[in-house]
Each structure stands twice: as C-alpha cells, then as structure tokens.
C-alpha cells in the first residue's frame, strides 16, 4: 500500500501531524510519499520525496492533513488520477475529513493493511457559455451570483429543457450531496445523504414570500 501525504501549510500542526502519520504508516508496512518541496519541514526517515505529479501517479491513497477545504483542494488537483482521499481533520467541523487526530493510529494502520471501503461522491460537470466560456468539474457546488450589480437578478432553472423554477435574488447555489453541508446549508438549503442521487438548488436571498 502506497500513501501520499498532503498537508495544508496554513495549519499550524499540519507538518508535525504529517510526520506522525508517516511514522504510523511506515510502521505498518506502507510506503509513504510526500512532495519534494516539503522535505525540510517534514523530514521523516523512510519517506520518499517526489514531485506532485509523481506522488499522484504512484499512490494508492491520498492522505490530507487539514480540514474539508484541504480535501476539496486536493480533489481538484487529483481528479484525473481517480485516487481515494482520506482526511485527517485539523479544522473545526469535518464533514469530509472524518479522521480525528486521536484516531490516526487505528485508522491509518487499517489503511496500511488495505482494510477500508470507498465512499464514492457525485461530481457536477459545469459548462459556462459566452465570452467567458469555461468548463470543469465541482465536488461541492457551483454558485451563480449577481456579481457587482446592485439590483437583484433573475435566474431560471431548467431540467431537460423544462422550466423547474424561476428565482429573483442575489444568486443560486447548485450543490452536490457533498456540497449540501457547505454554502448551500448556510443559505438555508437541506442536507442530503452523501449517496443521494440528486442535487440541491438553493436560491441566495430570493425576493419571495414563499
């Protein structure tokens, strides 16, 4: 089993926890990779330091050290490699980073033995038309807002060319089940089970009495 450890440099404890995680994994027979730029901060005997691309190509599992934002960042970078991600939570509330620091020994030893199950998550495919055309994928959500405009904006939501709803307000959030616990929740949207085959459309400050 090969594990690539990716710490969030913005978290004060991230480097120390990364070294501890590496030692646990190595003790239980796993190979451990880190980016070569972290060699000074996270020097650990037995760890192999490679480029990010080499780490993503060779690893079986990505281990992030941070919070949910760290997982989202790493998921975006590693999308084409289709590698599972486990997050050690150094944030406040880990909806995605489900391994707490005091659980590292038990959970990382299980990972080293290959004893884990995969929780597959939905992605949104997004395509923006017009002069600022863009396309890509989103794990959490897509947000359409009025930008710098002072007045409310009209949004029409269609599914298979059928009008579902029309909103007037500051914007609309389209969230996956994973993203239903993020911005959409803060805007009053419901929480979906991670395996729900559906999306949440949450208006932002809609001009409506309903």
From TrEMBL:
Q: Which reaction does it catalyse?
A: NAD(+) + ATP = ADP + NADP(+) + H(+)
Tell me where on the tree of life, at the top rank, the source sits.
Bacteria
- Keywords, ordered alphabetically: Kinase, NAD, NADP, Transferase
Q: Give GO BP annotations, semicolon-separated.
A: NAD+ metabolic process; NADP+ biosynthetic process
Q: Answer whether the UniProt record assigns the keyword Nucleotide-binding to this protein.
A: no
Q: What Enzyme Commission number(s) appear in the record?
A: 2.7.1.-
**Coiled-coil regions in this chain?**
none
Extract one GO molecular function annotation from the record.
ATP binding
Note the Pfam families from the entry. Answer: NAD_kinase (PF01513), NAD_kinase_C (PF20143)
What broad class of enzyme is this?
A: transferase
Protein's UniProt keywords contain Metal-binding: no
Mind telling me which InterPro entries this protein's record contains? Answer: ATP-NAD_kinase_N, ATP-NAD_kinase_PpnK-typ_C, NAD/diacylglycerol_kinase_sf, NADK
Name of protein: NAD(+)/NADH kinase
